[in-house]
Amino acid sequence: MRSITASRSEPNLSNKKKSTRLVTAKRDLSQGKKAAEKIEKLEKIPVIIKEGGSDESDKDDSKDFLKSDLAIKFKYYDPLWFRIPSNMTSSHVRNEICSVTGFERAAFSFNKTIVLLENGKMRHINMAEDIPRLDFLPISGRTTCFSISSDFTLFAVATEEQNNSKIVVYTPEISMTEEKCVYGTQYLPTELCISQGAEIIACLTPLDERIFVQTFDVKDGINNCSGQILTEKNVKLWEMSFCPADEGVICALGGTMAYMLRASGGYVENFSTIQLTDVTCHEWSNDVNIMFGTKDGTLSVYRETILLEIVNIKNLSQEVLKDAAIFHVVCLRSTTRRFACQLASGIVLVFDSAAESGPIWSTSRAIILPDFVHHRSHCLSFDFGDETLLYDNGRCLMTVPIRFLTRINAINGDVVTVRHCSKVVCVKSNEHCIASLDASGFFIITSKNTKRVLCYSQIDDAFFFTILKKSQHLLIASKNCLEKRIITLDGLIPFEKFMKNDILFDIKNLIFSLDNKYLMFLTKNDHVYCLDISTGKTLWSVDYKLHFFTSIAFCNSTLLLMNQKFIVTRIKYGKDLSNVNMHASDIGFSITSELIEANEDYVFVSADCGELLCSLSSALDEPKVVKSMIRGQRITHLRAFNNELLIGYENGSVAFLKLKEAEEPENDVDLILCKFEGVVNLKSLLRDIDTERNLIRESTEQFVKMYTENKEKEMQEAKSAFEEAMRIYTERVKSIEHEFQESESIKHQTIASLKELYAEENRQQKEKYEKMIEDQIRKSFRQMEEKQEELKRVIAALELKLDMEKEKLEAAKEKHNEALQKLRESHREDAGLLEEEIWNLKATCVQLNEQRDRISDENEKNISELKISKQQIEHLRDTNVKQENAINKLSDAITLMKTKEVEVKKSQAKVQQKLVVREKQCEDALAQNHRLKRRMQDMEARIEQLADCVYEPRRLEHAVLRLLAMSQNVDIDERYRRPL
């Protein structure tokens, strides 16, 4: 969520400088008088112009030249020029460096105004004006961040001035220049946000492994809460936002952690933390849910720390995203009516939204950006009515009306401003515009009047260019050739190409003289050439070896060569003059010099730390540091043109420094070439549209007039017809009411008599059916009680038998256990005897070896006895198995008894079902009674029909007879005529 910055408008700057002169005039009156006296003396010094063929010494030439140059300077400049302001680092120029193109952050303000931040300066532009201008806001100090409330009533910026940080609040509806309130902060904020109700402002400052959060109450104008939150690691990039439903809840996103903060009681505390993966940005999707964008193309919706939903971006607009390879979410923006999401593949998705439910994903509209370049910061913003979207494609900041968008749009919106995405390698200017070129070959042409971008174009392999004098042509040098292009509304159009020159590949730096008659260039081996452009001949050349020059400049017939140690080598007419050290005491000795640029009055030197040194051309050894809001950015290009210095930076920013007061242009309208056929076609189209609009307006007026007359006539006719119909209906209603009153009296008498007859008959039928139903119910209850008693007797007998079988089974188990115990004891005794006999046999075998035969016989006898005992043991085992089978049979008998018990229960269930059937029959009888009541109602309806026949006696007599016959022949349902 980044913003935009631009350059200062000349009228505002001139007014500011005029007021500064009025304020400081009295203070510097004495200095002015002294300077005037010096001017009178210096006017008498003769101007010495040295020709190229003179044989005088270089020392005398340099002295004479400096004297004449110094005299010219004192004649031209104001005596207050060299006054050094006390509130800035001393410098020979009074202005500070201001940006021309580029933007870091941008957002819509009140109405159609857009505010931009670039290199510590705020700019604004009103797109609703006839001639929009990019003007600077009069904010003192360096601005680090800004924020605009959701209702566009507050505009807050964080600034730093003289090591004091503060937050300044403005009211865009009233004025963008008058301060509403100012808050001092302990640390310089890098992030700001304003609550949904525009009552609280929060700021965030990242520190070492922690962040400092501070809130301010706009209504009371006090410091509300503050606190330091510990973080897991040192994160520099942060985002912060307020919860729309609770102004005391703040979400701070840094790295892969989202910290939910609560500001209350004077303290800011972390009450929960969300651990995320590959998160890039966040936004509140509705009043209570927060959405995080990730690098894998998903949107994670959380409510506090609970994950509610994961939305896949590819599924939202499959027609556009099916071939996309990158779904990296780079920016999110949400309002009560719209939601926008920008992807790294160059696609912006716009959805309708609701404050309660959030984005409506089915309303996707896609904007495809043809020339998208991924940048470290991107912008998304909606205007006050959510009708216009502000977005960027990496280089261009554009606006597009949302109401004209279809489902898929491959368009470019209206350009607000443009920036470079790589380092600036060349900057040139003329009386009307400033042209800049970056390392990727991207050109930007900016107007000096309105500070808006006139056109931009991409030319690959371009590394140098110059604007031809008094024309709209650019001479561009690329790796392949030299070519001339025309500045038009559609970009830089090719005009003429030249052949390639091999010497261009060895050139390190080249410059033109102020009169464009001479070309001087420095080669990579420190060889300096001076060429005459008209003849193409080399006027002079000097070979410097191992001097390691970095840049060259031309000042008052003197060529200046800069090395890395701030040592300037001077060459005049091909002769080497003395060297000058341009190092300033305000910067360190470890810093190296890079570029040098000069005009008739000043010499500028850039350092690798981003500082710019300035010295008078007459005093090169006294440089001063120029004040700049652009800090920490290395300068890659310097260009002095007339009364201004153009500066290009490594981050793509282009800035300028005014050296003198310039006259305000008579016509501040931007003019640029475009195709004649296009203008003619646009004029004819506008004329046709005006004609068509007039015809539509005329035909619409005629149609509305005719439609009104026809409708008035139809309404009058309908009104008269309605009144006549109402009169006729009123007379008919009166006659019907009279007849109805006479028939009502007769009807009431007839109905009363018929009701008495029906009531008597109904009473008799009711008594009959109630008696039948009661008898049947008594009989069924008696049978049911008898079956239940019989069932109880059967269950008792079965339980008694089951108990007896259980007792028998237990007795058999006891007998079996006793027999088994006896067998085990006998077996144990036999085993003991057998063991004793074996020991005896062994002893006898040892002692009586001679009686082997007799002992063997006895052994065989014992073996036979053992076989017999084994057979007895197997017999006992068979007996045990038979007893276990008997036990199993008893278990089967028990199972059978249980089965019988289940069958008895089933019979009991059948009896209950019969009881249900009887109850259903009772309900049918009641339903029959209900049908009789309905028949009674039918009879009453027939009696009421007799009222229609009261005036016809014959019909009335027949109707009464039919009614009596129907009442005497009442049919009874066959189900109730049968005996129950």
From TrEMBL:
Keywords: Coiled coil. The keyword Coiled coil applies. Residues 682-728, 755-837, 866-893, 922-949 form a coiled coil. The keyword Kinase does not apply. Residues 1-24 are annotated as: Disordered. InterPro entries: CFA-57, WD40/YVTN_repeat-like_dom_sf, WD40_repeat_dom_sf. Residues 1-14 have a biased composition (Polar residues). This is Uncharacterized protein. It comes from Caenorhabditis bovis.
